[in-house]
Amino acid sequence: MLKIGLIGTNWLTKQFVAAIRTIDYYQLTALYSRKLTRAQEFGVEIEQELAYFDDLTAFLASDLDVIYIATPNSLHFQQVKSALEAGKHVIVEKPAFDNPQQMQTIQEVLQAHPGQYLFEAARHIHEPNFQAVTQAIAEFDHQDGAVLTYMKYSSKFDAFLKGDTPNIFTKEFAGGALQDLGVYLVYDAVSWFGVPEKVQYTPTLLRTGIDGRGTAVLTYPDFQVTLNTGKNVQSHLVSEIYSGKQTLTIDNAGEFNQVTLTKAPGVQPIVLSQQPDTNPMIHEAQAFGDIINNHDQARFERLNSLSINVNHVLYNLRRSAGIVFPADEDGRK
Amino acid sequence: MLKIGLIGTNWLTKQFVAAIRTIDYYQLTALYSRKLTRAQEFGVEIEQELAYFDDLTAFLASDLDVIYIATPNSLHFQQVKSALEAGKHVIVEKPAFDNPQQMQTIQEVLQAHPGQYLFEAARHIHEPNFQAVTQAIAEFDHQDGAVLTYMKYSSKFDAFLKGDTPNIFTKEFAGGALQDLGVYLVYDAVSWFGVPEKVQYTPTLLRTGIDGRGTAVLTYPDFQVTLNTGKNVQSHLVSEIYSGKQTLTIDNAGEFNQVTLTKAPGVQPIVLSQQPDTNPMIHEAQAFGDIINNHDQARFERLNSLSINVNHVLYNLRRSAGIVFPADEDGRK
């Protein structure tokens, strides 16, 4: 059993806890929060006996195999680094890091700790319906790109409009639509089509200087991929992947509930998807557990390489729009 | 009755003929084609007694009030100019002209012929369902822009793939996705949101150097509008216009069959549209006839001003993608 400790106490952590409970690999052991009471309250919410820590060093020194991190983006780098250096495997929420400098540093730490794994929790790429899309794309005789959309009005945007500044809408916490929902779309594009030749992101900026919404265009040698992401508007658009007259449709490019293929205009679509699990994090938790238990270095390296590429594309998109995070400035020192 | 003559013999002309037959204003009188037999065959197809011309000067000198032009885009400028100089009102298919230089020249011709009208046949903006969208947008307390899509696999694209070069896929005839279907979307955006501050078009270019597909981003002070257009892929995406949690949905941003408003996520959409006419050109034919018969200079000027703005935006989009038409080069001499 892998003893797992959690950093971050939010709805995502709860979903992750529910996911690992369905898998034999994991034993939920400890919880860290800067405020001990918060950690304890969270423990009560998930109704489990846990060791509670408000001291990160003590938490990382405890008897844990894996650390799951679901904190604001700008905190990931230091927390992942500390956890790896403490000899733990790490699962970190997407986007793992703010920029390629951070990613490079972490890669060096990984190299210094052979046999330890770091996973970016891009849950959707591990789901069967994502794999169905991947398979269908591979069967096209040529690619004509895609229009992928993930734009949902944030539950925190009303507060933002009233003058509050939730973390997700700040540069300080490396927020914005691209980082929060766009990362799903970038994972899609890089998984299916590889690293683009050129990228351009055009955002609508909010008063905090981050992107409330934006359109990214990824240019490949023979086609383009358009990404629509946003947290200040509500979109019901499906996503589409093209090959001439053939159109592959995903109900949502971050959630993958239904995938259909329309072979020609006017022809009845074929359903390629299966009923998704209620908890979309089960498949990633299973995949990470498999890799750790089987020491599957090759599978780890494929995921790690994808994570590095996504990090580069996300960064280049963000910088093409002139959005600079504090961590970028630090990196230049 | 307005005696009307036709230049151009294609499916659009047939649809236009069917439209004007439903309106009392017009009397279809003559038909011009470079090949007389083609004109006569077309006359037979529309089952009407017409005067046939293969000499443009004689056609324009004949007893006509209005000329309708539906030829390849690159021919519009010279044909419109000749028709206006011959003292006729003109209805020309969209896009009217290849660039702002041509538009400027035509505006000078119009000024020299007071009382004569030129209409760009942007049929959709005259339809009741377009007006329903316009009205709903005006009722939003603020605008968050839109994602508008019109991408249909062209009936001529198979031939293009086999090595043929239909006019619509050439620079010589001022073709490409933006000019052919994108013009509907640009009309939408400029009608609803005005002239953008900045525009950027990223296309997938075909072997002839024109755009098979592309994404345009129009930047306004407080929001952005994204346009997806293409003739080499088949999209089933609806179009959306945003205001916070409210989403206005159009089944197709060039065809306007159904318009709905969703006031908040999860709420039942309200239908704002009516059943469209079978022939979508009836409303424009009616509008142009109204203006001519009533000498409605103010209404003409509003449409003319919109046409000038659309011409500028289309040109700036095309040039932002580095697509140069022969007429642009001529204009620099």
Q: Report the sheet-strand fraction of chain A.
A: 15-25%
* Secondary structure: number of strands of chain A: 14
Determine and state the CATH class of the largest domain in chain A.
Alpha Beta
Separation of termini of chain A? 42 Å
Largest interface: A-B, 39 and 39 residues
Topology diagram in text:
The structure is a homodimer of 333-residue chains.
Chain A: E1 2-7, H1 11-20, E2 26-32, H2 36-45, E3 51-53, H3 56-61, E4 66-69, H4 73-85, E5 89-93, H5 100-112, E6 118-121, H6 128-139, E7 146-151, H7 157-161, H8 177-193, E8 198-205, E9 211-219, E10 224-230, E11 239-243, E12 246-250, E13 259-262, E14 270-271, H9 282-294, H10 297-320, H11 326-331
Parallel strand pairs in A: 1-2, 1-4, 2-3, 4-5, 5-6, 7-10
Antiparallel strand pairs in A: 7-11, 8-9, 9-10, 11-12, 12-13, 13-14
